[in-house]
Specification:
The structure holds 2 protein chains of 2 kinds. Helices cover 77% and strands 0% of the residues of chain A. Chain A is mainly alpha-helical. In chain A, helix 12 (269-294) runs antiparallel to helix 15 (323-339) and helix 15 (323-339) packs across helix 19. Chain B has 2 domains: 62-167, Mu homology domain, subdomain B (Immunoglobulin-like); 181-423, MetI-like (MetI-like fold, Orthogonal Bundle), CATH 1.10.3720.10. In chain B, the strands form 3 sheets. In chain B, strands 1-2-7-4 form a 4-stranded antiparallel sheet. The chains are: A mainly alpha, B alpha+beta.
Chain lengths: 406, 429
Amino acid sequence: MRIGNTFFIAPVIGAIWAMIYTVVFSVLAMLITGETLIPDIGTALVSGAIGAVFYILLPALRRNWSWVALTAAIALVAHLVLSGLTSHTSSLSVVPMLTTAVIFLVSAITWHLCLAGMGSESQARYQLEVILIRVLKGLGFVFFTIIVALPFYVMLMTSLKSQQSLLANPLDLSIDISKNPAELFRSYIELFSQYRFGTFLLNSAVVSVSTVLITLLLSVPGAYAVSRLRFPGQAVLSRSILLIYMVPAIVLVIPLYAVFSQLGLRNSLLGLIIVYPATTIPVAVYMLQGYFRGLPYELEEAGLMDGLTRLGVILKITLPLSLPALASVSLYIFMIAWNEFLFAFMFLDDPGIFTLSRGVQALNSSEIPRQHLMAGAVIATLPVLVLFLWFERFLVAGLTAGSVKG
Amino acid sequence: MMVENTPPKGRGPLSTGEMRLAYSMILPTLLIVMSIVLLPLLANFWISFKPVQLGDLRPPEVRANERMKPVPTASGDVSEISYRLRNSSQQGSIDDVVLTDSLPDGLNIDGTLDSRCDFSNQVLTCNLGVYEAGKRETLIVPVIATNSYIDNPIKPRASKPLLVGDSDNILTNTVFSLDNYRKIFSASEFWSVLRVSLYYTVFGTLGALLFGLFAAQLLNTKFPGRGILRGFFLFPYVAPVIAVAFAWVLLLDAGPGGTLNAILMKIGAADGPVNFLGQRAVPFTIFGFTLKFPVALTTVISFEVWRYFPLSFLFILARMQSMSSEQYEAAEMDGATPLQQFWYISLPQLAGILAVLFLLRFIWTFNKFDDIFLLTGGGAGTRTLTVDVYEQAFAVSNLGAGAAVAVVVFVVLLCSALLFFKYSPQDDG
């Protein structure tokens, strides 16, 4: 066995991961079980380093999963011995024990992934960079997963709790499964029965679907003309479309508020159904024209030769070929309309016509318990998230192909 | 002489037809975009030069309160109908005010009627002329009851008096002033609002871009679960702002019940609760200088980064997956290390998309209103120009001043857009 730079890098990596997982899993265990765990970072650092040193000792080719498990066990034992020496709490309950075992097992898997193929001898710069990148990627995965998941987790779990238990222990986001469902989903039931969330849901759906339909109806011909037909002003139009999309809503809100107030359109869903398509049409035209340009023109020419009119060509050739683009544009527009807050907030005063965004905003009051606010947030999020997951591939392809392409 | 090959000038019948078709296809789109985007944009400039308050949106009108006293009980009883009239507005005058009211059958005029009024067929018509702002008046009509009224007494109030008049619409008149601009530029906080806006935009954009670049590197290699993870990373962008903003507010709450503060205190990273969204700044000392770290501003920037890194991530990942592997294989042969490959091969190819994303995100972040409004309401040193528009127009109720701030927003935006079109690479990936 030769001792090189990797031999000294390994314990650093082991210590880093043991520390990170100790914090992460302790907090996670606290959130899930509601039991208080105080992570012991100092002992975690040392025992992680010990485990990783053992790991690197075996030649790279002979390391297998049982070796990984063995190093995890070594680190775990080191941790138990060290914490037995430092702390005076002898009573080890099940949750901390289980958590600690998980921490060192996951740590061992991670250092195995970081150091795979690396012997304990001195490595060249190339190999060191490979290790560095593996560590950074691992940190990245942990970091992004936590920052994305945490707010959504808090949102969901808070909506299932009661005000008193939240204030008593904000970390206890565990769900009491033994409770009957009516008790567990109380906030949701109250929102639908007393706060008219059924109406809000319906209003949001009506506004969003209308916006999608109107936008498609107007933007398909517009995008087709800009991408396929020659006319004076075509170049200017195709460039200025995106400019219009950059006009901030906040600049439009004052004049629209003033004019719609005087026209009697302000406090109505019709007002939103007029405003939303106007703000989404430019994006839709931009995405669609990009897609139309990519379609082979020969097909359309053949159609024209065979005696189809332009309208016939669009309906029978272009649109069927553009179904993926239409799907992604529709989904994107739906999301914009569903999530829109500013105009809904400024225009709607009457609870009977609130959209979900406006309805959730109205829950933000000190008189309404916060689990209601979070239940409202979940109700607003769930439909759009489900739609997104369902059509994710379309959306991703459409967004990246059409919208920002230069 | 050089012979130039140019297409024939003028238009044949075919191209004229095509042109007509194109215009008719674009017209509906243009009309709605004109009326909801471009006209309001111009209207905003117009309003910014007018001294108009939120309350002025309701046009001034004359309101009337009618009563009859004493109530006639026998034929020949004399009574008075009085109309108490007032201009509802304290600012706008109303021209050509006309009151029309029908009196119940059997009530006749007794004595002299006000010279402005006329009575025929039981209908009273009064040409009241100009009503100055806030003017009040009581119009008295002396009446006498006849038998037919006593037999069938109907209160005069049963028919409401109709009042019409021409009021000057505050939005369409030609009163202009520079007061709004004078007011916003002389306000001491304006420059700090502008500075906060720029900090927010620059750091929010850069942060989202860097995080997006990092996240894209993670998912650029194939592994099981990559598709799921990609969808999961897009959650912050897809979810409604209202939901995630309030989730953050709860997560960061400084009072009892705030999850993040409870975590930080449990693991010993903080002594007391940190007021992430309510604290303007904490002082700290470095090299003997005392600087202030803006807490709330950093939090709202973090939220912006959190919400929009998925977008950059998506575009950067798409660009990276379209790169050919040949260059990397050649570099590998030449012994280039992974970081060198990233720096000398990946980054130059990503420069185009990064530049475009930067400019687009810059503009959109600058335009952002919802996020800060929902998180802090513009308090604790997080008020940006867009939040200021709302504050001026709807919280202080000065529509004109709000519109003037909106003009500032638009001007900054226009400069950025010009930059974007000057430097956007054509047809890059």
